[in-house]
Design a protein that fits this description.
Blueprint (H helix, E strand, L loop, with lengths): L1 H70 L4 E3 L5 E3 L6 H12 L4 E8 L4 E4 L13 H7 L4 E5 L17 E9 L5 E10 L1 H107 L4 H26 L2 H4 L5 H7 L6 H8 L1
Antiparallel strand pairs: 1-2, 3-4, 3-7, 5-6, 6-7
Helix pairs in contact: 1-4, 4-5, 7-8
Length: 365
């Protein structure tokens, strides 16, 4: 009963431990998937944003160079020192401003600035900053050195001058150099390209990609959990079958032990019965016969009859048979039947067999 109770408790504890491990595996796997999805979405966001900004920056440079080549050549003027400078007459600013604004609409350009070689703004769609100098602008210095530059800037850093008009949009700021007819840099053309819609599209693509990725990963996870659950059920069923078979085997072993014990008990009982029979019946009969043959020998010897020798041989043979019966009784009986042949008298009196009085008296002599 204690063993069965222990097996039940052990089995129940093993089942609970396996269930807890499976639940722990589920939580850890789900947590890992969430972390993987977050990292993947953040990585995709960075990649999509970088691609969008890269294309926007390249596009802004192409737009700037196209506007520069089509609009700025007419403002390159030759002065008395035989040098070419960039100069926009004040009377042409309104017409140029109207023309530029028309050109801005299809390309998401929100502002334009034109600098001369002295970093002075000679034209801008923000008219109040025309004539201002911007000597500390590092990107402008790069463009005046002959290298175009295009870079995404945050709303706080994109506006160079304190009093210029700000736009609440995502901006790619682009500078391209302006050359004279001799290939010398005489100014810079700057555009502010609005990339808000491009980044919003990238975010929409990211959301869709994240949704597809999440559905795919979670579907694979659900299938994997289903397979693991079915495998666990199969293992559990197999374990239950093995447990039942083991229990049945233990029962059969116990039954065999019980039968062996019962068989040994029967053999022992029969052995004792045989020893008792040898002691109480045959042993007493042989003892009586030995006594009678000995008396017969004495009588024949007293009459000097030749038959006395035959009687002596019979007595010897009967004595040998008695000794053999005594040894068999010792081997087959318990201690109380084999501790000594001298106890045969009292044993014979206590037995159910009728023992001759003269044989008992003989063994007591």
């Amino acid at each position: 009963m204690i063993g069965k109770s222990f097996d039940s408790v052990h089995k129940e504890e093993t089942t609970k431990r396996g269930f807890r491990l499976f639940r722990y595996f589920q939580f850890v796997s789900l947590g890992s998937i969430v972390v993987i999805l977050i990292v993947a979405v953040l990585g995709l966001r960075s990649i999509f944003r970088s691609l969008v900004l890269y294309e926007a920056e390249k596009d802004a440079i192409r737009i700037s160079e196209s506007l520069r080549d089509s609009e700025m050549r007419q403002f390159v003027q030759l002065y008395l020192d035989n040098k070419q400078y960039l100069s926009i007459p004040q009377g042409q600013l309104p017409e140029m401003d109207q023309h530029m604004r028309v050109c801005l609409t299809p390309f998401d350009i929100v502002k334009i600035k034109v600098f001369n070689a002295e970093t002075r703004i000679i034209y801008s769609t923000d008219s109040k900053i025309i004539g201002r100098l911007d000597p500390d602008n590092a990107k402008l210095a790069t463009a005046l050195s002959g290298l175009p530059i295009s870079k995404y800037e945050s709303e706080d850093n994109v506006w160079d001058l304190d009093d210029e008009e700000c736009k609440d949009v995502e901006i790619v700021e682009t500078y391209v150099p302006i050359y004279n007819r001799d290939g010398e840099v005489i100014g810079s053309f700057e555009v502010y390209k609005d990339v808000t819609r491009d980044l919003a599209m990238a975010n929409r693509i990211l959301i869709r990609s994240g949704a597809v990725l999440s559905v795919t990963v979670l579907s694979v996870f659900a299938v994997l959990m289903f397979v693991i659950h079915r495998a666990t059920q199969v293992i559990k069923s197999g374990t239950a079958n093995l447990t039942a078979a083991n229990k049945q085997l233990l029962q059969e072993i116990e039954e065999r032990k019980r039968l062996e014990k019962e068989l040994l008990s029967i053999i022992e009982r029969e052995r004792r019965l045989i020893g008792q029979e040898l002691h109480d019946s045959i042993g007493q009969q042989l003892a009586g016969i030995e006594f009678m043959t000995e008396v017969l020998e004495q009588k024949l010897s007293s009459k000097s009859l030749p038959e006395a020798s035959y009687a002596a041989k019979i007595t010897t043979r009967v004595g040998q048979a008695t000794e053999q019966a005594r040894n068999l009784a010792k081997g087959a009986s318990s201690c109380r039947f084999g501790c000594g042949w001298s106890d045969v008298g009292s044993a014979g009196i206590e037995s159910n067999h009728r023992t001759p009085v003269w044989s008992v008296l003989y063994f007591k002599m």
